[in-house]
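Changelog note: in this version the structure field was regenerated for every chain. One regenerated record is shown below for reference.
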Amino acid sequence: MQPSGERPRALVLGATGHIGQAMARDLLAHGYHVTAATRRANPASLAGLDVELAIGDADAPGQLDAWARGHDVLVDAAAPYPIHRFAPQSPAERDPLRYAATRMRAVLDAAFRSGARLVYIGSFTTLPRAESSLAALETSFRRQSHPYFAVKAHMEGMVLDAVRHGLPAVLANPTAFLGPWDDKPEELALVPQLLAARVLATVRRVVNVIDIRDAAAAIRGALEAEAFGTPIPITGHDVPADALAARICQLAGVRPPPLRASARLSAASAFWMEAALSLGGRPSPLPSLSLLLVLDAYAMGPPIATTRFGEGVRPLDETLRDAIAWYRSQRRA
């Protein structure tokens, strides 16, 4: 508990990323002192925010301990995951499971030693689901095809083990983020791809999308409710992927993708194209991960946890308009 009148102190790892920015802004708006950890010396994305910058490499020995000291909350909004299945583009992608485990151990140790509550932001892919035996077999095969799934499951397992050893930790499992402040590579972000007319075909597969601001509010709410130790689905709207793309294009005033394709065939084609390009040491312009995640998506139903812990789920059109405006502002910058 904080002494009366003293602001709680939150350290946000990955504060310049999509969910990291949203968490920093939401925590600031609710009275937290925010330390934004980043490798960037002068992050334009945090300009104008009343945050304390912690600049450095989180992987450097002792860095996380030094940053976490004196904080009440440690928000891990930078949990690693490999994007490229082939032709790794960083040391973290060459041995993604080992890298993720080493980093997560450092995060957990820093939280234990500082006495901070941990907020770990994971993935919807680790949530349990009801499936037929055939669908479960397909899911198992898909998850063996890309290390993303093993990395996310392993990190969540480590956090749950730490909870059993006394660490107060919120485990947030969000679906696909939409909204402002996205810093993902453009090839992994749907909206700018649609705005640039780079999407030739869409798939009819139900996905769940959540406004980044609604997600941040729900995660903070779970922290303040001390909802520790149980994975929490952070969900928003169930919508077919092709209908989502069509609506984005309609709101943006651009032509929608002309074709419809099989989600399975599209994912398989992207996977093998990625493999073929890797023979020449080149990364694919369309990593298969984005389509594999679409295949892994499913209808989540009413956003119970998001509504319980957060401030509700805003209309999808509001999220889409704000996302379009943000991406267009970045193009002009």
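Spot check on this record: The longest strand covers residues 33-38. The two ends are 43 Å apart (CA to CA).
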